[in-house]
């Protein structure tokens, strides 16, 4: 398990070129682990092999529950957020997208700041929009160092410029100068500085969470609902005029929930059929291993559809909003 500094790097459009220049000058005995998020979505990527060839440090896709190791480059795999969990363990999450993408930079930065505190060096490279800005601010808030690629050097300056506009950045340099800078910062960083205590109740970064909704939404149009009362009976009205009493709102909400389950069920059933067709195609081409994997994917989709069918077949608890007999409140 690594106890030294941690370098976390976020990049998007134009970032792979900047990363190649950065890793080229990292020393083989770098006393820090390196974690990288590139905006690749679900697409397969050769980034780890490219970075492995570009510099002296070994690079590979991160694996779930893999320990951080000094002198290694861990790259977020397609379709997964890469986060750091105490004590310095890597986790992969298929939680909600941030900034429209998964993997995203902010979950990595926030989790690293929480897990490693002042031992973290955060780096924002070329990219559009502002992913990484909030995470870099969290790294600074917990005593870490903020490094940004010079926007004039970035093919897409949006991410570096956003970080410079909103975070007290410590260093702003071209990509070609960044490897030497990070090597020096890692050597100087006090790796023994205690990170802020992380709450054991805090959820892992990059995961789905069930917070209280900011507002209920209209079952008809999806707009936010405003709650009012007529005497003691609640009414819900959206901003274009759809209006529900308590019972009709509960009925409409259940109907929309059932529709959502049915849409998911339809999608799973179609995926199962697609996988079966592709398994048959692969089998006909003599690709037995590919056929086996498509068949397994089809069974997986079918099994998950069966779970939804069970949900759809179960009754929901339906308490009444009306007062008890004679208009008096229920008594227990």
From TrEMBL:
<feature type="active site">
    <location>
        <position position="39"/>
    </location>
</feature>
<dbReference type="GO" id="GO:0006935">
    <property type="term" value="P:chemotaxis"/>
</dbReference>
<keyword id="KW-0145">Chemotaxis</keyword>
<dbReference type="GO" id="GO:0005737">
    <property type="term" value="C:cytoplasm"/>
</dbReference>
<keyword id="KW-0378">Hydrolase</keyword>
<feature type="active site">
    <location>
        <position position="12"/>
    </location>
</feature>
<dbReference type="GO" id="GO:0008984">
    <property type="term" value="F:protein-glutamate methylesterase activity"/>
</dbReference>
<dbReference type="GO" id="GO:0000156">
    <property type="term" value="F:phosphorelay response regulator activity"/>
</dbReference>
<dbReference type="Pfam" id="PF01339">
    <property type="entry name" value="CheB_methylest"/>
</dbReference>
<dbReference type="InterPro" id="IPR035909">
    <property type="entry name" value="CheB_C"/>
</dbReference>
<keyword id="KW-0963">Cytoplasm</keyword>
<feature type="active site">
    <location>
        <position position="131"/>
    </location>
</feature>
<dbReference type="InterPro" id="IPR000673">
    <property type="entry name" value="Sig_transdc_resp-reg_Me-estase"/>
</dbReference>
<feature type="domain" description="CheB-type methylesterase">
    <location>
        <begin position="1"/>
        <end position="182"/>
    </location>
</feature>
<keyword id="KW-0614">Plasmid</keyword>
<dbReference type="InterPro" id="IPR011247">
    <property type="entry name" value="Chemotax_prot-Glu_Me-esterase"/>
</dbReference>
<protein>
    <recommendedName>
        <fullName>protein-glutamate methylesterase</fullName>
        <ecNumber>3.1.1.61</ecNumber>
    </recommendedName>
</protein>
């Amino acid at each position: 398990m690594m106890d030294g500094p941690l370098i976390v790097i976020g990049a998007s459009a134009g970032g792979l070129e900047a990363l190649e220049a950065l890793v080229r000058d990292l020393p083989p005995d770098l006393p820090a682990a390196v974690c990288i998020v590139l905006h690749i979505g679900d697409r397969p990527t050769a980034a780890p092999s490219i970075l492995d060839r570009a510099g002296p440090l070994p690079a590979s896709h991160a694996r779930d529950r893999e320990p951080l190791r000094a002198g290694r480059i861990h790259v977020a795999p397609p379709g997964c957020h890469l986060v750091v969990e105490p004590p310095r363990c890597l986790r992969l999450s298929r939680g909600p997208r941030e900034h429209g993408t998964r993997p995203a930079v902010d979950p990595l930065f926030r989790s690293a700041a929480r897990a490693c505190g002042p031992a973290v060096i955060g780096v924002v490279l070329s990219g559009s929009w502002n992913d990484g800005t909030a995470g870099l601010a969290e790294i600074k808030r917990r005593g870490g160092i903020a490094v940004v690629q010079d926007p004039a050097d970035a093919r897409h300056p949006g991410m570096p410029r956003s970080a410079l506009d909103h975070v007290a950045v410590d260093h702003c340099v071209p990509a070609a100068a960044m490897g030497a800078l990070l090597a020096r910062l890692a050597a100087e960083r006090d790796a023994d500085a205690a990170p802020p205590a992380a709450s054991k109740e805090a959820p892992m970064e990059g995961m789905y969470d069930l917070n209280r909704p900011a507002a209920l939404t209209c079952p008809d149009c999806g707009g936010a609902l405003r709650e009012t009362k007529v005497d003691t009976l609640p009414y819900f009205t959206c901003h274009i005029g759809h209006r529900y009493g308590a019972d009709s709102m509960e009925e409409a909400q259940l109907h929309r929930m059932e529709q959502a389950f049915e849409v998911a069920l339809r999608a799973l059933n179609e995926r199962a059929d697609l996988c079966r067709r592709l398994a048959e195609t692969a089998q006909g081409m003599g690709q037995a291993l590919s056929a086996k994997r498509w068949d397994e994917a089809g069974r997986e989709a079918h099994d998950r559809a069966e779970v939804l069918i069970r949900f759809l077949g179960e009754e929901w608890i339906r308490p009444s909003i009306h007062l008890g007999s004679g208009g008096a409140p229920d008594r227990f």
